[in-house]
Q: What sequence folds into this?
């Protein structure tokens, strides 16, 4: 793996380049990665990307290391061009991030409402029951059912809170990266 990386770096250094921008970053395993397209940099590493500018006048093997810069801004929109945020992420990317959390929120909300209905129904059944005719074990089962339904409600409340929190984080991230807010809907 290391030889392959060295070979690729060697090839990059000896190939003629015409004012090309190279982005580099280290992944979680410490491997140094290179690309010439910012959109190919994984989002998790975009805050640590180094930028190298290669020009015709440079000799191979002497890259000009520019200090890390803000990611390139998307060019002005032209007719038919895909709209992106400042990191080059488009509407599809944002929708792919938001959609699973919206689905989780919807599912958790539906499950919570069902658990709430079941809890209310069970509570009403118990309140209308004549306890004199019921055994102790039946009463214990009723209490256990209520506790189980209450725990389900709490679980779904936590899922709703998590989904809302993630959607809020994505909304803030979209705002910071100048993404169109309509992409999150």
A:
């Amino acid at each position: 793996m290391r030889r392959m990386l060295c070979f690729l770096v060697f090839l990059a250094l000896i190939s003629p380049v015409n004012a090309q921008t190279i982005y580099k970053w280290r992944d979680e395993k410490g491997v140094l990665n290179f690309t010439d397209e910012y959109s190919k940099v994984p989002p998790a590493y975009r805050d640590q990307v180094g930028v190298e500018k290669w020009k015709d006048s440079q000799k191979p093997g002497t890259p000009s290391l520019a200090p890390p810069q803000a990611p390139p801004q998307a060019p002005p929109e032209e007719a038919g061009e895909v709209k992106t945020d400042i990191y080059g992420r488009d509407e599809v990317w944002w929708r792919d991030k938001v959609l699973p959390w919206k689905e989780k929120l919807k599912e958790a909300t539906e499950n919570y409402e069902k658990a709430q209905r079941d809890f209310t129904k069970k509570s009403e059944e118990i309140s209308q029951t004549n306890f004199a005719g019921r055994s102790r074990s039946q009463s214990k089962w009723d209490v256990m059912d209520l506790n189980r339904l209450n725990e389900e409600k709490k679980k779904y409340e936590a899922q709703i809170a998590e989904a809302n929190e993630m959607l809020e984080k994505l909304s803030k991230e979209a705002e910071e990266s100048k993404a169109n807010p309509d992409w999150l809907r």
